[in-house]
Amino acid sequence: MTSPAETSSLRVALVGATGKMGRYAVNAVNGADDLELVATLSSRDSLDAIGDSGASHVLDLTVPSVSPEVVRYAVDHGLHVVVGTSGWSDERRAVLEAQLAEHPEVGVLIAPNFSIGSVLASEFAAKAARYFDSVEIIEMHHPNKVDAPSGTAVRTAGLIGAARAAAQLPASPDATEHDPDGSRGALVDGVRVHAVRLAGLEAHQEVLLGTPGQQLVLRHDAFDRSAYMPGVLLGLRTVASRPGLTYGLDGYLDLS
């Protein structure tokens, strides 16, 4: 006979379970009393296994080329989705929002970063950026990371850019006229972002803010993927109560 605790558990299908992040997530979901891991898939497995498992939630930890297919399948089948895969551009999110309009009961969270500390650091940076003339981001990751700049850096730059635009601030001062090799980094929402890929690193980000006579540095370090698991669990536990698309774990935190 099924116990009350079992019937109240959220049934999770994890896609991308064989990756480094996926292996941590398997342990995190299995260790949570209110979650039940009912399916583990690699990025290459048939998504039909999700439907066969009776899952209510899908956790997508795949790669940018696979993630939209996973999310599309889940939404079409009325399943809530938590996404920890990068590559979700404005265009991809617009397509997803159109799909969600046909499934208004489904919740989707796309989280550029699941580390609550990193989310807070980005929020603090956006608030501080209104009071400094200059701001730049340095993101540093292991050399196996396939995208640059990181989703976290893009998200941080977006928050900073929006905050500075709302305050009607000019662009950071920069007299550079000649940079044929792009050493000044990518320009994301008006913020320079520099990507470092170095053996021995995991995931690290610095936001540098400057004005005459002072500097503020906001840095977050994730030393292994266990840093992301509290955010993953928060996302799974919350997503069903937030229909539609939420972009960024900060949407589930009280940061007002």
Automatic annotation (TrEMBL):
Compartment(s) where it occurs, according to its Swiss-Prot or TrEMBL record: Cytoplasm
Q: EC number(s) on record?
A: 1.17.1.8
The record's section on InterPro entries has: DapB_C, DapB_N, DapB_N_CS, DHDPR_bac, NAD(P)-bd_dom_sf
Which pathway does the UniProt entry assign to this protein?
Answer: Amino-acid biosynthesis; L-lysine biosynthesis via DAP pathway; (S)-tetrahydrodipicolinate from L-aspartate: step 4/4
* EC category name: oxidoreductase
Q: What are the positions of the active site?
A: H141, K145
Tell me the keywords, alphabetical order: Amino-acid biosynthesis, Cytoplasm, Diaminopimelate biosynthesis, Lysine biosynthesis, NAD, NADP, Oxidoreductase
Every copy of the Dihydrodipicolinate reductase C-terminal domain together lies at 118-251
- Superkingdom of this entry's organism? Bacteria
Per UniProt, residues of the Dihydrodipicolinate reductase N-terminal domain are: 11-114
One GO MF term on file is:
4-hydroxy-tetrahydrodipicolinate reductase
For the ligand (NADP(+)), the binding residues are R44
- A family per Pfam: DapB_N
Q: Which residues form a coiled coil?
A: none
Classification via NCBIfam families: dapB (TIGR00036)
Report the protein's function. Answer: Catalyzes the conversion of 4-hydroxy-tetrahydrodipicolinate (HTPA) to tetrahydrodipicolinate.
Subunit structure and binding partners: Homotetramer.
PANTHER family for this protein: 4-HYDROXY-TETRAHYDRODIPICOLINATE REDUCTASE 1, CHLOROPLASTIC-RELATED, DIHYDRODIPICOLINATE REDUCTASE
The record, for HAMAP family, names: DapB
Entry protein name: 4-hydroxy-tetrahydrodipicolinate reductase
Name the source organism: Citricoccus muralis
